[in-house]
Specification:
This protein has about 200 residues and is an all-alpha fold. It has one domain.
């Protein structure tokens, strides 16, 4: 994976063709569960220009989407091969190879989000697109996503209320740890609705 990542970064620097970049992104997407954060920190081709972002978030969206589409294709194939009784023994069950890969990728994305959240030039729409990539079942806990969202809100204090609300909707409050719930309940950067929800969950938990 490190080799593919290095090739993609070189291709970007050398202004390689779109087809070349797309092929490298596809190859990375197929092996995404083997990646580390450094592998997906793809530099923006415009980095250094005023108001440009440090990282190419659109490239990363494509890479993660390839992995997620592969997962969906596997689900479709599984549904054709198994009858109802076989569905009781689901390949996506905790500890299965597939579920393990999905959880690795979800942690990778949350770490990536926390890194790019520090970029003051990253548009809220781009960050929201990244945060909304994973389906609900892909995260066992939401603490990593909450941390990334909180960093983004801290670095982007002037974000629109509608964007703030949509961004926070990506967090499944029921998957927050007690510690994260306690922090969120007192977090003035969050919409009031979310603060009330986590406060309720922390008291009822």
């Amino acid at each position: 994976m490190a080799f593919l990542s290095s090739l993609l970064k070189t291709a970007i620097t050398a202004s390689a063709s779109t087809s070349c970049r797309s092929d490298l992104e596809r190859r990375m997407g197929l092996q995404l569960d083997q990646a580390i954060l450094e592998d997906v920190l793809v530099p923006s081709i415009t980095h250094g220009i005023n108001h440009s972002t440090m990282y190419d978030s659109e490239s990363v969206v494509r890479i993660f989407s390839i992995f997620l589409n592969l997962d969906e294709e596997d689900d479709d194939e599984d549904s054709h091969l198994r009858d109802e009784s076989e569905m009781m023994c689901d390949f996506d069950s905790p500890g299965s190879p597939k579920q393990s890969a999905i959880l690795k990728v979800s942690k990778l994305l949350d770490n990536y989000l926390a890194e790019v959240a520090l970029d003051s030039n990253l548009m809220p729409s781009k960050f929201i697109a990244l945060a909304e990539l994973l389906p609900d079942h892909a995260r066992a806990v939401s603490d990593g996503l909450y941390r990334a969202v909180d960093i983004f809100l801290k670095v982007h204090p002037n974000i629109k209320d509608s964007e703030r609300y949509r961004l926070c909707k990506t967090i499944d409050c029921q998957k927050l740890s007690q510690e994260a719930c306690s922090h969120a309940a007192q977090n003035e950067r969050l919409p009031v609705q979310m603060a009330v929800q986590v406060l309720y969950l922390s008291k009822s938990g």
